[in-house]
Amino acid sequence: MQKKLLISVIFLFIFSFSVQAQELNIRIEPKSVGQGETLVIYLESPGTLKNLEAEFLEKEVRFYEVGKDRYRAILGIPLTAEPERYNILFRIKTKGGLEIEWKETVQVKKRVFKKETLSIPPEKSKHLTSKYLGTEGRKIRKVYKREERKQFWEGRFILPAEGRISSPFGAYRVYNRGKASWRHKGIDIANKEGTEVVAPNSGIIVLSEDMRVHGETIIISHGQGIFSIFSHLKERLVRKREEVERGQLIGLMGQTGLATGAHLHWGLCASGTVVDPLEWTKKKIGD
Ligand SMILES: [Zn+2]
User: Fold this and answer.
1) Ligand 1: distance of its center to the CA of 168 in Å?
2) What separation in Å is there between the alpha carbon of 194 and the centre of ligand 1?
3) pTM of the full predicted structure?
4) Which residue range forms the structural domain that includes residue 139?
5) Is 226 within 8 Å of 74 (Cβ atoms)?
């Protein structure tokens, strides 16, 4: 959906910019977005901006320059966001010193998520309350904050492994009769141990290590705040700082860490929020 935002102070713009067009182009896709889905904001300015700021769900929105006077932000909608209308507040400052503030609205739609009950065998159930769960989570969130201005990914993502989707994104999970419960922050693809795991899109390896709960784990930065995580691998075949291309072999499926069988856990993170990776395989996001 394309929207042209006419600034009421056009005459000021004429002094600020020496170009013909006195308007900003702003496009928000989609205007109505589901919980755990991805939202893209495109902004085109008629002249160079000194500053561009936006705020959504009390978080600062990070814009990247994607062309001359063209900016883009890719945001994840939290799984727990209430289905209602939200404001995105924008604030820009032009080189001429003009400041403009305005807001746009976005509708968050309710999505239905699966409920799963899982039983973890006794030898692995210690992971459910393990102190490592917290430390690993913090470590992963820290990696997700890494700045990478370059965009590595291109077009649609591919599924990183062949197999059956054994658990969808966002499922409510109850382990060992309520001993622990949380939301599933990725998708699980089940297949034989040793099944090849490939990069769903291009990027750079920002983590490759053995973790107690997540098992053998790899994180790819696809650039500009987009990350993929792969857990419970049998083997990791890439090193930190290595660049990978879409379709490149990165590891083998396994059941290391907290896993009840051989599967790949694939998670996707956009601007610090976990999102449904399948959406990225169904359409191009950010083009
Ligand atoms: Zn999983």
Assistant:
1) 8
2) 17
3) 0.89
4) 115-282
5) yes
